[in-house]
Design goal:
- The chain has 293 residues and is mostly beta strands.
- The chain has one domain: Beta Barrel (Porin), CATH 2.40.160.40.
- The protein contains 1 helix and 13 strands; from the N terminus they run αβββββββββββββ.
- The N terminus is likely disordered.
């Protein structure tokens, strides 16, 4: 029988995540407390001294592409980003798997000029597995894992053409559909504003996930995205994503695209497609929205 206990590297990884996230969170609040005492210059904005709405920069979102934004939510402000509907299909010689997720919301709060905290909560998931030889269908519905994320911006929060951030995260085993255990990882997103029309983003991601053998293994993701404004309200993006799991030496490649319509400066709606180019990769359609308060 194979052990369900994580390997030592995984243990060390989770310890580092568990230490890093709360420490950074506390540090941000400490910074906020120090800043709020600066009542004369008002030089620093934070959770308790929000950025005035008249001085807020253009809203930046992690969705709808896979590549995360290198920018954080303005301090003292709340932002929500949601996959209102996400349809995933995957098939092989034996089964056809489909999944529909409703309102997978990412709830964000700006802590300081450099940092925000995020909570990803999937509201409802419906999975279906059809056995191709017999046409037998098994359906399961329920709740998925909740993920806590913390983003820290190294540079770019004051402006400029480039930005770099770190986004560590940890997922908790709240799923009613399967036992994924505690999982986690870190994302390093980079952004480059080429000009007023074009922007480029890329990221590296390293995860520790629980595989079918009930042990923890590393997984990696790289993505690159390019966005273009078509009008003052409408923009499009194209994106390339590759994932790789050393466990089984498995890789998938995706070609993604989507559109974003800005209803107001603080409210976007979007839709798009993540198209798996490799045989085992998912085909995903999504539609969602983002807003900021």
């Amino acid at each position: 029988m194979q052990s369900s206990v994580p390997h030592q590297p995984a243990k060390r990884f989770f310890k580092s995540i568990i230490v890093t996230v709360p420490t950074a969170f506390i540090a941000s609040f400490s910074f906020a407390q120090e800043s709020i005492e600066d009542t004369v210059s008002k030089k620093f904005y934070n959770l308790f001294n929000p950025v005035p709405r008249s001085q807020m920069k253009e809203m930046e979102t992690d969705r709808p592409d896979v590549t995360e934004s290198a920018y954080t939510v303005a301090p003292g402000h709340f932002q929500m980003e949601s996959d209102l509907l996400r349809y995933t299909r995957n098939k092989n010689s034996e089964t056809i798997n489909t999944s529909v997720a409703y309102n997978v919301g990412n709830y964000k709060l700006g802590l300081s000029q450099r940092a925000d905290i995020q909570l990803v909560v999937p509201t409802y998931i419906s999975n279906s597995i059809r056995e191709r030889p017999t046409n037998k269908i098994v359906r399961r519905t329920g709740f998925d894992d909740i993920t806590l994320r913390f983003k820290y911006n190294f540079w770019g929060y004051k402006g400029g053409k480039t930005a770099l951030a770190a986004l560590p995260f940890i997922s908790f085993p709240t799923s009613t559909l399967e036992d994924n255990g505690v999982q986690g990882g870190i994302v390093l997103p980079f952004a480059w504003q080429i000009n007023q029309t074009f922007n480029f983003g890329t990221q590296l991601e390293a995860d520790i996930i629980k595989e079918a053998d009930n042990n923890y293994h590393a997984a990696f993701l790289y993505s690159a995205t390019c966005g273009s404004a078509l009008t003052s309200n409408l923009s499009v993006f194209i994106e390339a994503v590759t994932t790789y799991s050393p466990h089984g030496s498995h890789a998938d490649v995706y070609a993604n695209t989507g559109i974003i319509y800005s209803v107001t400066s603080n409210f976007n709606i979007d839709a798009g497609l993540n198209y798996g180019l490799t045989t085992s990769a998912d085909k995903i359609f999504f539609a969602g929205f983002s807003f900021r308060l």
